[in-house]
Write the structure tokens for this entry.
Amino acid sequence: GLLFYYHRYSGMIDARLSGKLVHRESRIFTSPKRILLGEAISLAQISNYLEAAGYSTSPSADATGQIRVEKSSVQIHPSANSYFKGKNALQIEFSRNRISRLQSLDSGDRLISAEIEPELITGLFGRAREKRRPVRYEEFPEMLGKAVLSAEDKRFFNHPGFDAIRILGATWADIRSGEKAQGASTITMQVARSYFFSTRREWRRKVQETLMALILEHRFDKKQIFEFYANEIYLGNRGSFAIHGFGEAAQAYFGKDIRDLNLAQTCFLAGIIRAPNRYSSSDRRPERAAEARDRVLALMMDNHFITEKEAQAAKKTPPLLVSGAHGAGPAGHFVDMIKDDLLDRFSEEELNSRSYRIYTTLDSDLQGAAVSAVDWGLKNVDTQLERTYARWRKEGKDTPLPQAALVALNPRTGEIKALIGGRDYSISQLNHALAQRQPGSAFKPFVYAAAYENALEGTDPVLTPMSTVVDEPTTFFFDGKDYTPENYGQKYYGTVTLRDALVHSLNVATVKVAEAIGYQRAVDFCRRIRLASDIKPTPALALGAYEVAPLDIVAAYTALANSGMRSEPMALVQVVSQGGYVLQDTDVRRRRVLDPRIAYMVTNILEDVMSRGTGAGVGLR
């Protein structure tokens, strides 16, 4: 009997945990972080960043590397588990919270810049849409540990896996209420339930949990079991993501590293364990956050972990939960792109069980700047729409919410350095950077590029940036239909150069340029640079009336910025196995689509757009 269950459950433990203290799912990382000599960043910031990336202050076989922190410097020694595969050892010295010296420990050379470990974007992979940020027991804050013990299992470090006192108390309470046993699960029993059994409340499952808990206590020490628990426990949903583990919950609810939580926030996380779904919306129901916090503060006082004075101070400290999306940090749509790409090559089971390290092109600093830029822009648009649709509100109608997309590429490599796919990932996972939309004026530079090719080929009409066109109200006739575009604000400039027509984004003048070279020639040009395949040869094409994905528009622009070489967008760089083997490596793909002289002319004009044309307002922010 018992021997049978011991062997059976031990087999389940070996299959599920395989001796690892954290979940074995694949993890997605940014590109390496670049640091610069003279950069304003502190020793503490670099150390915290590297520890979050898996570096340890002491030797560890599982760590990404080791850091040695001194008073005003840090040595970085990547391990074989790192992005750098044991190379790229650095010494960084600091003065007044700036990098004052960078030195390679491999070559001894002084450096102007260097790369350090990529940043973890998310520990999620798979359709279950769970998020995890594993935390080692040694990294777990002492106060949070005390809060969890107070809330869930204060005798955890003393019992053998089940708590007889709690079981007797809960059983007596249930006999009086006529319900099945509840509320007596120890932390070890919760680990057994989370990893191996269902969550149905029934006596049979309780017996299974207890047997498994005894075997877990025999196989692992208390610190290991607590680490299993701390990284697996379900802590509610944020947007479309299920949050597992305290490391991810700290980010999801407070936007903080687990080590930076205050007492009020610590007690909130410990307090939501029993009913996580009730507290997932605490950013909109602050009274629920206070309820969870205050219950654990009282328990911590009872256990003499904190004083009454500390508890009262924590009650006066609002938890400050972050609101809105928690879609893989600020890069939910980007992570979805990576997921779709990987599922073409790997099975979901493989990605969830093999501990692959997935390196991407994302730049965390640029992604943060992109989030801020889109938020700022949308707030301005929202304000204008509120004024425009004031009458709608009086009639009880909602003001329409505009969407936004932003893509930033390295034009030489095609690497996607930042991507925003919409205003709120938690509300909609539709990636507007990939959706077909009318590009509008963003399409105009390609009309002028096609026109300038006439001059190189000696084709009539020969057009250059100094050629002129008459900008005035005009009706165009095509295929038996008439088309009457208008300039913005119905402002017309008369005779203008093609340079000024593009600088000021003049609609009528641009259609005249397309008409002069022939609409089909403009279409052929766009297909050659792989801009789109369904653009029609009509006057409306000149004003971006045919739908194109924003990512495709940005990719076409790389040909202008890269001397005529188009770079194919790429988001995934490498997939590396737990043993350090490269399972997938993406190469940069470029090909010439445009004469470099044409690329130079159009780029030069677009610089004018930013200095004195329609883009001049960008520098005012």
Observations:
- The longest helix spans residues 364-388.
